[in-house]
Amino acid sequence: MSGENDLSEETRADAAIEDLEDLALDEDYALTSEFVDMVIDAADRGDGARMAELVSALRPADVADLMGFLTAGYREEIVPHIAPDALAEILSELETNIREEVLEIVAPATLAKALEALDSDDAADVVDDLDEAKRASVLAALPAHERTAIEASLAYEDETAGRLMQREVALAPQFWTVGQAMDHLSRESEALPELFFDLYVVDPAMRPVGATPVSHLLRARRETPLTEIMEPVTEIPVDMDQEEVAYIFDKYHLISAPVIEPGGRLVGQITVDDIVGVIQEESEEDMLALANVSDAGRDASMVGIVRSRLPWLVVNLVSETVAVSAIAIFQDEVAKIVALAVLLPIISSLGNNASVQTLAVAVRSLASRELNASNTWRVVRREVIAGLANGLVLSGIMGAAVVGFYHDWKLALTAGLALMADIIIAAVIGITAPLALEKLGRDPAVSSPIIVTFVTDFVGFFALLAIAAGILM
Amino acid sequence: MSGENDLSEETRADAAIEDLEDLALDEDYALTSEFVDMVIDAADRGDGARMAELVSALRPADVADLMGFLTAGYREEIVPHIAPDALAEILSELETNIREEVLEIVAPATLAKALEALDSDDAADVVDDLDEAKRASVLAALPAHERTAIEASLAYEDETAGRLMQREVALAPQFWTVGQAMDHLSRESEALPELFFDLYVVDPAMRPVGATPVSHLLRARRETPLTEIMEPVTEIPVDMDQEEVAYIFDKYHLISAPVIEPGGRLVGQITVDDIVGVIQEESEEDMLALANVSDAGRDASMVGIVRSRLPWLVVNLVSETVAVSAIAIFQDEVAKIVALAVLLPIISSLGNNASVQTLAVAVRSLASRELNASNTWRVVRREVIAGLANGLVLSGIMGAAVVGFYHDWKLALTAGLALMADIIIAAVIGITAPLALEKLGRDPAVSSPIIVTFVTDFVGFFALLAIAAGILM
User: Predicted ipTM?
Assistant: First the structure.
């Protein structure tokens, strides 16, 4: 009887959690603001049981999202009510700046316990965010083999394959059959990753010679030699930049890939779920760089935000000051024909817009390796011809507008010619600036917007006023 | 003896292919321009055997890359030398506009044969690019069940889960044990996808009740009921937009997810390798939209390029013409103090830059669902305060520069105040424009750059000249 009661109470509790889950996420699995308000409300009332209940209804990624929607004060309220066994995964989901803050609240012993539940790559990520003193005490509280794994991972440079990979790998020697491999995989669950998709076949020097997806293992006959069903692998050098790794995963639709040391020895594997995050990161970086923002991360402090933007604005102020010197040179012309002051910003705006269009396309093509020595010349030519076509149409419209407003065909001719020149220069600089930066080994997205803005403004101003000085004076 | 000779010849041929592979790709697995030149060279000589040899040394994704680097004329030379069994995968790797062109060269019967080798989602993608007449003849040449699968896939709207999913799924009823499931998977290889990562457990109405990764199946004891080891699934409605699907995969680190009809019946699955491409696409779309480019795709024709950019430039020309009306109103002031004409573009450039910074961050936050009703007010306030801080610093520098150049502290005050006003407006419009577009159900990245440019320019021009009229006249 009592057993039955327990069961129905459990069922009721399950149903309540189910309801909370439905409340927490909208149909697109994004956290609802109603749920965030419920959490804030519980925190305001200091209702710890309610906070624990709300948080436990969420998956780790959603708790991480919740933290992003709360202010630091509320985060501090919530963290103690997170179940210790959920903490590890939540930590690995948090954005760096929020994670750093949460890590300060959690005790080293609790943290060490949580880290044991994570794969080596995720654990290393978390440890990397600890300050010197806390890192030492957390590492000391870990079992020796976990500590070694984490320290080994941290020895690789940030944003490389070595940091992305996990050391746990499903391996088989090349003389095994499918049956031997399957028996091994079902027994040796300790050393295996929590989840794996490919079994790597290695030679005696631990060099990968092939791989077979787990689903193919299931389908093959037990006596089949592994070498018969294995497929070629795409090896990732341990020091490869994560952007290259993401490119390779995307290109070849990889689910996992072995990571090798110089010499070819297998040291770990990277799985596609780690790569999805990298792809997001890398394209966000490009987008922000093109908008002249250094990434400050979610929930950056006010200082962080200003620091990510002000330096670019100052550079812009300086370069623009140089660009307007073209106007200063011709100030007598401007004083005589004030219409020029009205036309200057139009030409500058269009030149800018055209160059940023070309720039964005070029940065995208470079990132996806669609632009290299074999088609550079063709792409540059295409951009310039497109600029010519756009310039012709825009100059025509602008010239007509000037005639309409000012009834001055000489002024219209001046504006049209200057715009034409600026749009063509915009195409040239929009494609050559990122190519040149890439050739110099720099990120083509960073700082090219400043360069193209400067060039198109200077040329636009100079062209309009010099042509005006020639034709109109 | 002869057998030995055969073997060594085969080995030599293998070694030659190995060499070509090394030549084809650099250490980052990107196609080298040397290899592209070798292909062009072979095509120029009309050496079909060499073309076939070169192409066969590449993986499908690299052949697709190669096609992108060649001009249309060379592509036409190469296509006939692609091995028929490699064609299917290469087709599904090609960019749409190149694929359309290649599809015109290939005969319907060859095409039908190639499509049979693909999963239903990839095959549907290819068929979608065929013109009406060719589509009919290709579909007619396909076996009935393939045709049905492709037609069913095409019945879903473009860029939805229904189009992304494949209909082939590994399934088990909920009363099975691990052993029964494994026996089923090893026998029923016909109906199964070529590669799979999760086994979905379904109820009698075919609604998914859970899933278990294949690697967990291997590790469990044969007599364990599936319901004991299965994990909850994240269901994807068949009409969900691919951008939402990508968000969910990224957030929960999914490898595969079941796709359900209204009512909950399982109709297919989406795997992460399809999603990696979607994530790339969606963030590229945002980046290009912020640069006022409609995506024209790789190797777009000249007309395609102009069409993807010119409309935005025309809109920019019109909006900028309206913005400069602020200057036209105050032309007497400009004629009297020409320095104003020099300062106008600086203020406009900085206002623009500041608003695009805020805009890019907002678009990024909206895309990753980091911005919703619960933090909108906080984010807007933070942007405005950051604008205030940036504005103070920039106005200070600009004021000092004006005093330095023009020795006129009233002009410096005018410039400083106007810049301050413009930077704050830039912050306000940079965050509210994308929020408003999102609220209206529009893409926040598209058309917001035009809006923020117009607003910051108009306000900047008006502020500088109105303040000048008040202080200096």
Answer: 0.88
Distance separating alpha carbons of residues B38 and B41, to the nearest angstrom:
5
Closest CA to A358 of A378, A375, A389, A379: A379
Using CB atoms, which residue from A288, A310, A386 is nearest to B302? A386
> CA-CA distance, B357 to A308, in Å (whole number)?
10
pLDDT 10s digits, B366-403: 988 888 888 899 889 999 999 999 999 999 999 999 99
State how far the Cα of B420 lies from the Cα of B425, in Å rounded to an integer: 9
Tokens of A61: 């990624």
DSSP B269-295: EEEHHHHHHHHHHHHHHHHHHHTT---
**Could you say which DSSP state residue B196 is in?**
-
Mean of pLDDT over chain A: 89
Quick: pLDDT tens for B142-182.
Answer: 888 888 888 888 999 988 999 999 888 999 999 999 999 98
Q: Do B331 and A342 touch (CB under 8 A)?
A: yes
- For residue A258, the surrounding DSSP H or E stretch is strand A256-260
| Sign of the CA dihedral with B308 first, then B313, B314, and B318 last | positive
- Say if the Cβ atoms of B394 and A272 lie within 8 Å: no
For residue B325, give every residue at least 6 positions away whose Cβ sits within 8 Å of its Cβ, in sequence order, or none. none
Nearest to B38 by CA among B82, B80, B74: B74
CB atoms within 10 A of CB B26: 15
- Which 8-state DSSP code applies to residue B40? H
Q: Which of A71, A214, A250 shows the shortest C-beta gap to B276?
A: A250
pLDDT category, B5, cuts 50, 70, 90? Answer: very low
Query: Looking at CA atoms only, how far is residue B251 from chain A in angstroms?
Result: 6
Min Cα distance A261 → chain B (Å) is 14
Cα distance from A104 to chain B (closest Cα, Å)?
Answer: 23
pLDDT band at A430 (very low <50, low <70, confident <90, very high): very high
The single-letter code of the amino acid at B45 is R
Cβ contact (<8 Å) for A350 and B316? yes
Give the one of B323, B357, B374 whose C-beta lies nearest to A293's C-beta: B357
Residue of A nearest to B33 (CA): A374
> Which residue has 């715009």 as its token pair?
A419
Closest approach of B131 to chain A, Cα-based (Å): 27
State the DSSP code for A165: -
What dihedral angle (degrees, nearest 10) is formed by the CA atoms of B62, B67, B69, B73? 160
d(CA A436, CA A363) in angstroms, rounded, equals 12
H or E element at residue B438: helix B409-439
Contact of A449 with A341, CB cutoff 8 Å: no
- Amino acid at the residue A412: A
Instruction: Collapse the DSSP code of B57 into the 3-class scheme (helix H, G, I; strand E, B; otherwise coil) and give the result.
Output: coil
Contact by Cβ (8 Å): A248, A254: yes
- Residue A207 · residue A260 · CB < 8 Å: yes
pLDDT, one tens digit per residue, over A96-152 is 888 888 888 888 888 888 888 887 788 888 888 888 888 888 888 888 888 888 888
Contact residues, chain A, for B344 at CB < 8 Å: 341, 344-345
Put simply, the answer to whether B215 touches A185 (Cβ < 8 Å) is yes
Phi, psi of B225 (to 5 degrees): -65, 145
Neighbours of A262 (CB within 10 A): 8
DSSP A94: S
Q: Which residue in A274, A313, A320, A446 has the most chain B C-beta atoms within 10 A of its own C-beta, making it the best mutation to test that interface? A: A313
Residue of chain B with shortest Cα separation from A419? B317
Rounded Cα distance, B382 and B111, in Å:
57
- All residues of chain B having their beta carbon less than 8 Å from the beta carbon of residue A182 are 218
Q: What is the largest CA-CA distance in chain B?
A: 105
Q: Tokens in use for A213?
A: 């997806």
Residues of chain B with Cβ-Cβ distance to A328 below 8 Å are 342
